[in-house]
Amino acid sequence: MALRTRGRNSGRTSGRAVTRTPRDTAHEGFLAHAGYRWLKVAVALSVLAVAVYVLTDPTPRPNGGTFAGYLLGTIGAVLIVWLSCLGLRKRIITAGPYSLKAWTSAHVWLGLSLIVIGTLHTGFQLGWNVHSLAYVLMMIVIISGLYGIVVYARLPAQMSANRGEATQPQMLEALRALDRQLDMAAQPLGKDETDLVRLSLEQCDVGGSLWERLRGAYPGCGNGRARDAVQGLVNAQMRVGKPDPRLTQILFLLERKDAALAQARRHTAMKTRLDIWLYVHVPVTFALLAALVAHVLSVFIYW
Amino acid sequence: MSFVIRQIAKRADGGDIIRTRSIDVPEITVGRGTDCDIQLPDLGVMLRHARLSLLAGGLVAVEATGGIPLEIGGKFLNRAELDVAGNPVIDIASHRLTLSRGEVAGSIAITAERVVADAGEAASETGVFSLRGVMPGKRGLAWAMVGVVLLAFLALPLWVFWHDAPEAPLTAAVKRGWQPDMVWTSGPLSTAHAGLANNCGACHQTAFVSVTDSACVACHTPDAVPNHAAADRMAKGRLISTGFEANVHKGLNLPEGRCASCHKEHEGPQGALMVAERFCTDCHTGLSSRLLDTGIADVKNWATHPQFKATVVKAASVTAPRFERVLMTRPPVEQSGLVYPHDVHLSATNSVANMVRKQGLASKDGALACNYCHVADSDGVRFRPIEMEKNCGACHDLAFARDGGVVRTLPHGKPEQVAGIIRDFYAVRRGGVELAGDGRRAPGVRAVPLRAASGEAALAGIFGEKGVCSDCHAVVDSGAGRGALRYGIAPVTLADHYLPKGDFVHKRHETYGKLTGDAACVACHKGVTTSKLASDVLLPKVEQCRDCHGSAKVATNVPATCDTCHGFHYGEGVPGRPAGDGRRHGRVVAGAGRGAAGVSAQVGR
Prior knowledge:
Helices cover 75% and strands 0% of the residues of chain A.
C-alpha cells in the first residue's frame, strides 16, 4: 500500500505520465479471484434457478419440458459448452480481466452452479435414458472437478514435504545408482543369491499398476521380497558365525533401495491422485458433450 | 587354433566400445566369474555358464556347465556342436555370443554383446511418475466415450426411427421387444399408454414435428372424446399468444390447441390425465370479451370462481317442465309443485319422530335420517330419485280398507285409477265397511273417511282440501265434474341435478371436518332443519367449497383444480357431465336427455 501511494505521488510530482503500479505480490488463489466475484455470480445464478423452479406451474410435474425446464436447460447447455472451452482457453495465456485465472475461477464456480441448474432442469425425474445419462455424466464431471480442486489445494504441499530437495530425475537416478551397486555387489555370488538380487533388479516396478499407485501398496515388489530373503540368509549365517560380508553389503543396498523406493512411490501415489481426476474430468466432459447433443436432438426429433 | 573374442560394451553416449583379444587355447569358458575367458557381468549368467571347445572342421562344441541350458538358435540345449560357417548364435541371459570364422585361418571369432537392456535403466521419469503408462490416453478415452454415446444414444435410435415403419399402435407392443429409441424416453408413459412404450413412432411420427392430434385420434375417436365446444368457438375463445411466446411456439413448431398441449406424456402413471389449471384459465379468463355471445362467466382462478348457478324447476310439468339457471347470490326458489317441509320431517320430538321410532326407520338422534329419502346412487356421486312408495309411503300410506285380511291400497300417481277403485269398492260394499287396518295414517291427519255415505263422498274426502293427497300436493277443487276430474293435482317435477355443469361426488364428502353422517350433510346444506317450504333450494354456495378446497385455514387443505369438478371432453354445452354414455358418473337417468341440461323430471300428479 505504501509502495502504491509513493508511486502515485512520484508520478504526480515528477509530472511523468508513466508510473507503474507495483505488482501485488500477495498470492490470491483462483477460487478467491477478484473478491470471489464468480462465487457471487454462481450463487446468484443458482438462486435465480431456484426461483424459476419454485415460481412456475409445473403441472403435471416438474421436468425438463416445462417453461422453467427449457429455460434452465438452455442456461445449463450454454454453461456446459462454455465450461468445456477451458481446455482451449488454457492453452492461450493472457492477463487482465480475461486472464486465465479469472477464467478458471469462473470455470470452477459456474461449474458448481450447474449442480443446482442441472438438477432443477431434471425436475428430479431420472430414468434409464439419454437425458439422465447426460445428467449423470455432468455430475461425474462436476464431482471429479471438485475432487481436483481438493487435491490441488492439499497435495502439492505434501509432495514438497515428501520430496525434500530431490527432483523426480534425482529420485530415479538414486534408484539406478543403487541398482548398479547391487549388480556389481552380486557379481561374485552364486546362483541362489544372485537370483534374489535379480528379484530386486528385475521384478521391481517403481511406479507399478494403477491400483498399486492408488493404494500406495506394492505387496509383490521384488525388492521387498529380495530384502526379506537376504535378511533371512544373513540371519541364518549369523546364528552359526559371521555372515558373508558380500551378503551383508547387498542387504544394506537392498534396504537403502527400499527407502528410496518408498519415497519415490509416495511421490507417485500423490502424483497419481493429482492426475487421475483429469482422466475422468476430461474424457467424461467429451462424453457429456456427446450426450448433450443426443439429449437435445432426441428431444426435438421426438418433439 | 585360437579364439578371437570381441566384447562390445555401450558407452554412456550410446556408442560402442569394442575390446578384442585373442586367446590361443582349444577351450574357453563363459560366465560371470572373473576367471572366465568371456566374462559376462550379468546376474542372470552363472559364475561358470558354458564351455566352448574347438573341434576339427570348423566345428565348435558348446556345453552348458552352470546347470542352465543354453539358447542356441531358439532351442534350449545342454550340449551342441555348431558349424561356425553358419554364424551360430548363443543367447546367455541378456548377452548374445555370435560365432564366426576369424580373419586368421582356423581361428574362431566370438562377438559378445548385451542385447537386452538393463531392467533398471528402463524406468523413465514419465513411466514412473505420470499415468501415461498405466492409463489409456485422455484423448483416446474421450474419443471412445464420445463414440459409444453417439452410437448408442443417437445413431441407433435414429436408425430405428428412420427404418421403422409405424405399426398399428395397439397390436405392436405385443410383438416388439426393447427398441433402441426407447433410450430417448423422457419418463414413464401414463398407465393407459404404457403399451406404447416400445413403439415411439406411434405418436412421434415425424421428426421435429410435435405430436399431432392425428396420432391421438387413431385410438381416441372423436366420438369417444367429444369436443369441449365447436372448433370455431374454441379457436375464437382461446387467448392467442402474441409476441415472444408466439414466436417461441412457432419457432419450436409447437402449435397450440393440440391434444398434447394439455395432456403431457412421459410424466408417470397419471401424467397424461393431470392437466394444468392454466390450460382452462387460458381461455376462461376474459372469455366473454372474445366470445361475445357466451353465457359462461369468466373464471380467472378458483379464488374468483363465480357464484354457482343452480338449475331449478321454474314450472313443474308432466310433459314439459321448465328449468332455469338461477344465480345463487340470493337464495334461489323453485316451483317443484310439491308440498314438503323439511323441518317437520327432521324434528326429533314431533309425531314424525314418533312414527320413525315406531316403524324403526333410519334415524339419527331420534329424527328421520337424511339418507332415508336421499339414498346414494350406486357410485355415490348423487342420489336415487325420490319415490313416493319407497321414501314417503311408510307413513303416508294410501291404505283405505281391510278387506278380509287384505289391506286395500290406492295407487299413487294415478288419480283416475283411485277414483275407479273407490267407486267400485263402494258399489260392491254399499253400506258399512270397516275402517282400514291398524289405523296407521299420516301424523296429524285424519284417516281416509271410508265410512262415507257413498263413493263420491269418499273421493271428496281423499282428494279434498283435507284429504290425503293434499298432504304433499297442491290440489285444486274445480267443483265440477265427477271423481278425479273434479280435482286438479298440481304436477311435480323434482330436480335431479342442481349443478349439472360440475361434478360433486357426495361419497367423498361424507365427513366434514370432524362431522360425519347427517351432521356432515347439514354442514353444507345449511338451513335444512328449519326449512318449511319445498321451494327452498338448500344448496351450498361456492364459498362453502372454499372452506376446505384451496383454503389455507384448514390443516386438511384440499387443492382444487378446474378438473376437480369440471370435465373437458364431456361434449359441447355440458362440461360437467359426459355426453350419452355416463362414464363419469356411471349412471344414466331415464329421461335425462342432454337437452334437459342433465335434469331428470320426476313427475307426479
